Amino acid sequence: MRAWQVAELGEPQDVLRLVDVADPEPGPGQLVVKVLACPANFPDVLMCRGEYQVKPQLPFTPGVELCGEVVALGAGVDGFAPGDRVLGGAVLPSGGFGELALLDAATTFPAPAALDDAEAASLYIGYQTGWFGLHRRAGLRAGETLLVHAAAGGVGSAAVQLGKAAGARVIGVVGGPEKAAVARALGADVVVDRRDEDFVEVVRAETGGRGADVVYDPVGGDTYERSTKCVAFEGRILVVGFAGGRIQSAALNHALVKNYSIVGLHWGLYHRYDPAAVGECHRALTALADQGAVRPLVSERLPLADAAEGIQRLADGVTVGRVVYVS
């Protein structure tokens, strides 16, 4: 089969090569799927650079989530059959940026019929992260104000839709007019272009000085530090990631004085400690997709030959929504 491989570490455009590789074979509890769609995720970028917490042995094929059609079952796999349309997290080194990929049956779920292949592939990591973050970790309630950073990106766009579905008032922060238009289309009640406006002042003005009840922060660094200036009494700042490139330090005396919570979110740990909750989340997301309340924003659908360019554009911070390889 054909697949993109990383044989040395560096920028995606420099290290990804489209090569012929052997078809993957399913081990016990695994599935081989024909890849129908695979979105670019920031972990794919970081793994190409060797900067992610998971460091697959070289060479490897990136692509951490996908939608696929089951073609083969490993020993002990129940509940799936060849031809099933599924989604889940790929088992590296046989990631989703190839014609075939491996999935663990335990983290594989039926793809919602309401979503096409590219949308279904994009429902897994970003929307599961948003659902666990907003509902399990931050306890978002209807009527609260949710501040979402990078609101036009893959992770942020999911949080905007999930926040609206939960009945929150959503303020989205973006960089540039194109991304501002995307955030409005996603349903954000207020959109802040950080290049022209100070989101701290906008949040204060929009909440009568109270601040945001929940801050969804996949950016980190200065964005986190500025967010502490506009978080509400008993507010919750969700630390989702550090796409801005700098891991901040938290001033715990400030959290004490202002009476807000700093809440970490490592979605992957739920697979280890509470796998039933991951299944519950998928059922909830499927129901929301069926209702039309959530639909992953896919901005580009690329053939396999162009997938590396899409991953590099994500690395460069110039994408909106999800850039997806479709077969």
TrEMBL record:
Residue ranges crossing the lipid bilayer per the database entry: none
Listed InterPro entries: ADH-like_C, ADH-like_N, ER, GroES-like_sf, NAD(P)-bd_dom_sf, Quin_OxRdtase/zeta-crystal_CS, Zn-ADH-like_protein
Residues in Enoyl reductase (ER) domain copies: 14-325
PROSITE patterns: QOR_ZETA_CRYSTAL (PS01162)
PANTHER family, A to Z: QUINONE OXIDOREDUCTASE-LIKE PROTEIN 2 (PTHR43677:SF4), SHORT-CHAIN DEHYDROGENASE/REDUCTASE (PTHR43677)
Protein known as: NADPH:quinone oxidoreductase family protein
Organism expressing this protein natively: Micromonospora thermarum
